[in-house]
User: Fold these one by one.
Assistant:
Number 1:
Amino acid sequence: MEKKILIIGHGFAGCVSALTCYRRGIPFTISGIKTPGEASMASSGLINPVTGRRYVKAWMIDELIEKAIEFYTWTENLFGSTYFFPVDIVRFLSNEEARAAWNKRIDDPEYASYISKKRFFALDQLKTPYGIVTGAYRLDTSAWLTAARDFLLDKKLLRFQFEPINEDIVETRQIILATGAIDNVYSTGIIPNKGEALIVKLPGWKLPGIVKEKVYFVPLKEKEMFWVGSYYQPWPDDPYPSEEGRINLLQAISEIYPGEIEVIEHLSGIRPTVDDRRPIIGSIPGHPNKFLFNGMGTKGTSLAPYWADQLLSYIIDAKPLPSIVNPSRYSVIPG
C-alpha cells in the first residue's frame, strides 16, 4: 500500500477511522491530545432510526445501520467483549398532533423495520399513549472507545501528543483531520455544541426500554441506574458541566419520575455539529493531502462506520464522495 495515512484526533471519529484502516490493511498512525470535554465519553451512543416530532426516518438510516452492525460486531470480535446492543425506544404521544403523526407511520411499509405495535404492561399502567421505535441500537461509547484506544496502543499505532502536530512538517502523504469541535481551522461549518447528561439512580423505576420525552432516559446495567440527557448549548464558554444544565436535566426527570433522584455523576462533552445536519467529509480545498472527517454531531455512532469507509475509498481508490458531505459547501480558511 503506497499511501500512508496520519489520523489526527483520537476521539470516536478518529478511532473509527483508524480501525477501518486497520481492517482494510491501509498503513496508518493515529495521534491525539487529551483534552476535557470529549463528547464520546458523555454520549448515550444511541442509533435512533426514527426522529423528530413527525417521526421520520433518519437520513440514510437503512445503509447506516447495516454498516454499523457489521462494523461494531467486527470490533467486538477484535476486542473480545460486547459493546453494541439492540434496544427499543419508547415515545410518549402526549398530544393529538403526536398521535396523528405516529398513526401515519404504523402501517407504512417503509417504516416496518422501525415502528412497532408491541405493548408493555408497565407502560400501559401510566395511562399515557405511547409508541415503540424498534430496530434501534446503543453503543457503550465510553467502554468501546477505551477498548479501541487500548487496542491501538498495544499495536503501537496510537500515540498521545502534548501539543498540536504541525501538519505541514509531518512525514506522511495523507492526513485525516478527525479533531471534532476542538479545531475548526479548515472549516467554518463546525458549530461546537456542549451536551450534558446525568448518571442517576431512580429507585423503584423500571423501564422496558429507552424512553424519549424531553430528554432520553437510558437504563444502564446497574439496577435502577440511568443515563439521562442531553442538554445542549451551542458555542459554549467552556467544556465543563454547568449548573444550568444540571437544573434543566433534573427538571426534565421530575416531570415523569415522581420519586427521589440521586445524582451519581454529571457529564459533559462538546460535539461538532453542523447547521445542515450533514457531516463534513472529504478533501480540503487548497490542501490536496488533507481530509476532513468531522461534523457528525449527536449521530456519530451511526455515521462514523459508514463514512470512514467511504472516505478511505475516496483517498485510496479515488471513489467519489457525494457533494452533500463535501467540505467545500462551507468556506475554508487558507492554510
Note: The first strand starts at residue 5 and ends at 8.
Number 2:
Amino acid sequence: MDERLSCIGALALELRSDTHSGPTELPQDLAGELATLIARDLAKFSPQISELDLAVLAGLFDPVELLRPGYPLHAELVRLIAQAPGGGTPRVIAFGAANGALPEPLRPDPHFADGPLRLIPFVLRGDAPIVGDVGRQLEEELLDTGMAAADTALLAQQAFGAVIEHARYLTMHDLAAMTAMQYEHAGLGSLWPLIETAMLRPTDDVWLDTAPEPLARYGNGEVRMAMLDIDAWAEAGFPPQGSDAGRLARAFERFQMRQRQFAAVLNAHGIPVTFDHCPLGGDPRKAITS
C-alpha cells in the first residue's frame, strides 16, 4: 500500500493589468530554475519540506483551472511524480514545455488567459506523517506570511514577460477562500456553495433555492438547473410583485442571463450543468431531483 500523501498549492502571481506579453508556459531550463527557487522559499515555512518531493508545473493558470472537482491538474502532477525515476530520495521535479508546449493534460487553457491572478501549481509528496505536519504548517502560515522571495518573483516576471505586483504562495484552501470572496464581491456568492461542495464534498447534495436566483441543485457530480419558460417562471414566483407585461419580460430576460452566467462559471470549474425543462403547472424542484 502506498503510504505517501500529497500537499497541494500554488505560487500566485498578481499581474498588473495588460502587462503580460510573454509565454504562458516556460521551457524546461527556466522551469527548473523556478522550481529550485520555489523549493528554497517553501523550506522557509517548514524545514521538513526538504524531506519531500516537490513537483512544479511551469505554466500560468486561472483559479478556475485549479479549483475543480478532484483537483485534476494537481492529480496529474501526483501521477507524474510517481512515474518519475529516482524515487527514494527527495527530488525537485520541474515540468516545462518541450517543443514550445506542455503536454495536453497540463496546458493552460487560452480561454482563461486574461485574468489578473495567475497560478503556478505545485505538489509536495512524501511519507504521510511528514506531509501531514507540512500541510498543517502551510495552512497556518501561507495566507498571512507566504510572500515569495524577491529573486523568485523577478525570475517569474522576466520568464513570463509580465509585471508582477505580488507573488505569494497559497494552499488550495487559501485559494478557495480568496475566490469565494471575489465571487461575493462580483455578485456570485450564492453560487459558491455548489462549487465548494463539488470540490470538497462531492457526494453531498446542495441546493441553490433563493428566488429570484435560478433554481439549481448539485448532486451526483453535476448541477441540474430548472429551465422555465416565462409562464412557468411567473407561476413559480420568481418575478417581482406587481410587474406589468414589459417589466415582466425584462425581468425574465435578466433571469435567463443569470442562468447562462451561472452555467458558464460552473462549466469553467469543470462542473457539468444539465438544464431540466419544467412546463407550466409542473414543480421545478421535482424536475431537478427526479
Note: The chain has two domains: 4-185, 189-287.
Number 3:
Amino acid sequence: MKRFFFNLHLIIGLCSAVILLVLSLSGTVIAFEPELNRLMHPELTKVAVTGPRLSWDVVKQRVEQQAPGWKLSRFYFPDAPNDSTYVRLRSTRTHRIRQIYVNQYTGRILGSTEDGPNLLIRIHDLHVNFLTGTIAGHPGNIAVMAGTWSLLILSITGLILWFPRKVFHFHWRSPGPRLNRDLHMSLGFWSSAAMFAFALTGVGLHYQTGKLLDLLNRPSNATFRPGHGTSIEAMLQTARETLPGAEIPRLLLPEKAGDPVFLYMRFPEDKTPAGRSFVTLDAKTGDVLSVGSSRTAPVLESALVQYTREIHTGTLFGAPTRILAALLALCLALLTLTGPLIWINKRRAKLHGRRALARAKHSMMR
C-alpha cells in the first residue's frame, strides 16, 4: 500500500511542482498586500485631513459625476482618518469593474492602481487565476484548482509516507542528497496540517466565489426591523443599531434588481479586515432583512463561510497569523523544490550505479 501512496505522491508532486511554486511565492507576497500597496502608492492610499469628511452620499454623487457611465457599487471604508476611501465602480454599459481611491474630504478621485503596470495586481492575479481569467473553465482557473487539489492529496499522502521516518531526526551535516531528503521529509511532516488547511480552504474559496452572499443571507438568518431610509448614511445608522458595537468596514450596493444591500460588520475582537458579521437591508425601503453576528453564529456557518477565507489568507488573528501564513507559504515553496530534487538525485544515483557496474564489467572482461 505504501508503494501506491509513494507513486501517487511522486507523480502528483512532479506534475504540480511549478504551479505550487508559483502559488506559494505569490501567496507569500499577497499576505502583506495592504502594507505593500500603501508603501508603493502613498499618493493614492493617504489623504490630508482638511476638516470633517463629506457624507458618503455626497462622496458617491461626486465620484459618479467624475466617472460618467460608471456607478459606485462598493465602499471599503478607511480605518484611519488619513486613509483614503477605496471604492468599486461598475460600468453601466459593459459591467466591467474598476477599483479606485477617493478623497472622502473632497470627493475627488485620486486614481487607481489598475492604471498602468502594477506588480502587486499582477501577483495577486497570478495567485488567484494564473493571469488568464477568473471565470470557471478558463485555463488559469483550472491550473489554480489543479494545484490546490494536488496540494490536498500531497499533504495526506506525504503524512502517510513520512511518518515516522526522518520526522524527529535531522542531520545538518549529512551529504547533499541526504540533507535534501531529510529536509523535505521533516519539513513536510511538520507543515502537513498547514498545507492541508491551505488546500482545503483554497477549494472552499473557489466554490464560494459569487455565492458568499447567498451562503450568509439565508432564511434562517431572517429578521425584520424598520430602517432609517435608503441613503448611505441612513443605512449605516440602521446597521450600527442592529449590531451595536460593531464597525462597518464594507458596504455592497445592489448590482441587479432584487439584490439586498450588504454590510460587513466587525466587532472589536475580530482581527480579520472584513469582520465576521453582517447585516442585509432592503434596497427599496432600508429595512433590515437578515443579520449574522460572529458572537451568536453557529460554529458550522462560521467555519464554512467566515473562517475559510481567514485561514487561507492568515487574517484569522491579525498580523501574527499573517506572518505565520507567509512563512508557511515559503515552506511550501521549499517543499516544491526539494521534492523533485529527491527524484533527480535518485535518478542520478541509479545512472551513476549503472555506469559504475558497466565499468566494472568492462574491466573484468579485459
Note: The mean pLDDT is 86.
Number 4:
Amino acid sequence: MGERGFTLLELLVVIAIIGVMLAFVPGFMLRGQPGMDVDVAARSIADALRQARSQAVLQNREQLFALDVEERLFRAGGQRAPVQIDRGIEVTFQSARSELMSARIGQIRFFPDGSATGGRIGLTLDGRHAEVAVDWLTGLISVEHAGET
C-alpha cells in the first residue's frame, strides 16, 4: 500500500501558482481606483531600476535603464522586451545630458560600484503624481507620491 499525501514537486507547483496569482492581484485591485495606475507604474519603474542597479553590481559591469517618453516604454538591464506604461499617464524624464539619446529617449546608467548617472521620472494622471528618483552618488532609488498636482 502506498502512503497518501503530496510530493514535494506537487507542493512546489501549487506554491508557484499561488505566487503568480498574488503577483497579479494588486494590479487588478488597483485598476478600478482613480489615479492608482500612477502608483503601480511608479513601483514598476522603481523595481526595474533596482534590478538594473543590482545587475551592475553583481555582474561588475554597467547596466542601462532606457525610457522612451513619447511611446511610454522602458527597458532595464537584461530585459529583452520593453515594458509599456499605461497610455493615459503623462511621463517626464530628467537625466544627465550625456544620457539623453534624443528629445524623447533617455537612459540612466548604473555602474559596478552601485552609483549611477542619476535622474528623475515623473508620472501624472488625473491629478495624481508620482516621481521616481535615482541618486547619482549612491544609485539608490526612491518613489515619492503626491495627491493633487
Note: The chain has a mean pLDDT of 86.
